[in-house]
Design brief:
Radius of gyration: 25 Å
Structural class: alpha+beta
Low-confidence stretches: 46-75
Number of helices: 3
Strand order of the largest sheet: 15-16-6-5-14-17
Distance between the termini: 28 Å
Largest sheet: 6 strands, antiparallel
Number of strands: 19
Shape: elongated
Strand content: 25-35%
Mean pLDDT: 82
Number of domains: 2
Length: 259
């Protein structure tokens, strides 16, 4: 494949992928506890050593061109590295006794068919048996297992202790991880540690806030701005591909023609 066409096609696919990630972030701007995703680009070529950057198109293209010149026209490629932004979203007051937000690093533990998974989405409810569950019906884990509520007034203090009508029943299982990037996102709000080698440990410096929910950490204005920029980058690479294709066609059909 022509070097210019290869570079343009590869870059267009890379930035199209990031555009899809940004679109998903924007779609979850109102999802409680949602953590935004992004993609870091890193040039991989024998003649180029470029530090990983967060989608700086000028650096990407400069490095591509440099690699093209320094490696006998071997096209440079990009290594895509997805990552999740685990920064806390803003907390909003709901007044619902079963809404809980975490202040500081930490995750609620949730029992799923695939094992224990973790979430920052503290919008809980009670199922028909009085078990504390997530919005999709997964039991919320306490230190003694699933938490059953039998009574009327539910109180959850800052240390995560759950009391019903003044009687303590359990404590929320809240864990932290030394390497959050090792967690795999499952759906829009759950994270799995299985296969990553990461093991959660009990959180120590986390404050539990009853009657609050952590909002998505997506910055809608920034996402829209980044999406527009990515769309323009993709369009520019598509134009480059058309130009390269036209030049190749002329070279084949015109330059080789006998006069």
């Amino acid at each position: 494949m022509n070097g210019t066409l290869y570079i343009a096609a590869s870059a267009a696919l890379d930035h199209q992928r990031r555009l899809e990630v940004l679109t998903n972030n924007l779609a979850n701007v109102n999802t409680a506890g949602f953590k935004a995703d992004d993609i870091a680009f890193q040039v991989t070529s024998p003649g180029v050593d470029l530090e990983e950057t967060k989608n700086e198109a000028v650096k990407d293209e400069t490095a591509r061109g440099s690699a093209q010149q320094n490696n006998d026209n071997l096209p440079a490629t990009l290594k895509l590295q997805g990552y999740t932004d685990f920064s806390a979203g803003p907390s909003r007051h709901t007044g619902n006794s079963l809404d809980v937000a975490l202040e500081g690093d930490g995750f609620f533990s949730v029992q799923t068919p695939s094992g224990v998974q973790y979430t920052r989405q503290g919008s809980f409810a009670l199922d028909q048996e009085g078990v504390l569950v997530t919005q999709d019906g997964r039991p919320v884990m306490g230190e003694g297992g699933a938490i059953t509520i039998e009574g009327k007034k539910v109180t959850i203090d800052e240390q995560g202790y759950v009391s019903v009508d003044g009687n303590e029943v359990d404590r929320l299982s809240i864990v932290v991880f030394s390497n959050q990037q090792a967690l795999a996102k499952v759906g829009s709000s759950l994270f799995a540690a299985a296969g990553s080698g990461e093991t959660g440990r009990p959180a120590e410096n986390v404050v539990v806030k009853q009657g609050y929910l952590e909002s998505s950490n997506v910055n809608a204005i920034r996402m829209m701005t980044d999406m527009i920029a990515e769309m323009r980058i993709v369009e520019a690479y598509q134009k480059m591909m058309r130009t390269a294709d036209t030049a190749n066609t002329k070279a084949v059909n015109e330059l080789g023609r006998l006069i």
